[in-house]
Write a structure and sequence with these properties.
Layout: H1 3-18, E1 26-27, E2 30-32, H2 33-51, H3 55-58, H4 62-89, E3 98-99, E4 104-106, E5 111-113, H5 119-128, H6 130-147, H7 151-163, H8 173-197, H9 204-211, H10 213-233
Parallel strand pairs: 1-4, 2-5
Antiparallel strand pairs: 3-4
InterPro entries: C.elegans_Orphan_NR (IPR051152), NHR-like_dom_sf (IPR035500), Nucl_hrmn_rcpt_lig-bd (IPR000536)
Domain NR LBD: 1-248
Organism: Acrobeloides nanus
């Protein structure tokens, strides 16, 4: 199998681990932000296991693997959560339901709390990050729905984001050489998918809309880091994952 095919296979298994089974999902009237954070910590481990099925990535030196992974996972998390919501609930732009964990989803009527802090602080934190939530819906969720993105394209984005480390410092020359070969190969496979599977012979506009999602998702990570820093400074709430070495 090619590296992209390996990632397709691994991604399917990954989704089986993190998506709800059957019709078991609950649309929560009240939701605890701490459940997201717990899910993210498990998510990171499962995603790391998934990308290790890509042989060219698996054979990289540990330091390269670390730099690659920390560069991409948080941005891809936003894309994957929206895609999984689309798989489960469909492409309807007016449907606000969004998968949060493998056990529950939320919609526009859900009231958020943080169980470990006083309700007043919790409400202030939720209000603080509301612009980020709006940005996620308007600039990432709706474009993905309008595009009617396919699973193949999501895995292509995974591969593109994983291997596009041109601005990451400390990458070895060996990893750079592999990176360039992989990026060229996955572009060729996406071309074949558009031509032979979708019968889409003029796909430049669709590809541009797809690629545009990468910087948007990366900006979402930066917004999250900024809002969490503001919450920490304001003594509202503290969550250290996005301040750790695990997020670039």
């Amino acid at each position: 199998m090619t590296p992209l095919q390996q990632l397709q296979h691994a991604f399917a298994k990954f989704l089986d681990q993190i998506q709800p089974r059957g019709d078991s999902i609950i649309i929560s009237e009240y939701a605890d932000k701490l459940e997201i954070f717990k899910f993210q910590e498990e998510y990171v481990i499962k995603l790391a296991e998934a990308v290790m099925h890509c042989e060219p990535f698996a054979v990289l030196p540990f330091e390269d693997k670390w730099l690659f992974f920390r560069h991409f996972w948080a941005a891809f998390y936003s894309i994957e959560r929206i895609y999984s919501s689309i798989e489960y609930f469909g492409y309807n732009l007016d449907d606000s339901r969004h998968l949060v964990t493998s056990k529950f989803a939320v919609d526009s009527n859900t009231k958020w709390t943080i169980s470990e802090i006083p309700i007043e602080q919790s409400m202030k934190f939720v209000e603080l990050i509301q612009p980020m939530e709006i940005n996620l819906i308007e600039n990432l969720a709706k474009p993905l729905k309008r595009l009617q993105v396919t699973r193949f394209e999501i895995v292509y984005l995974l591969a593109e984001m994983l291997w596009s480390v041109h601005e990451v410092k400390g990458i070895s020359d060996y990893a750079k050489a592999i990176r360039d070969d992989i990026l060229e190969q996955i572009s060729s496979e996406l071309h074949n998918f558009y031509i032979f599977d979708l019968k889409l012979y003029n796909y430049a506009a669709r590809h541009a809309r797809l690629i545009r999602l990468i910087p948007i998702s990366e900006n979402q990570v930066q917004l999250y880091k900024d809002y969490l820093a503001m919450a920490k400074i304001s003594n509202l709430f503290e969550y250290n994952l996005y301040e750790s070495e695990l997020v670039k």
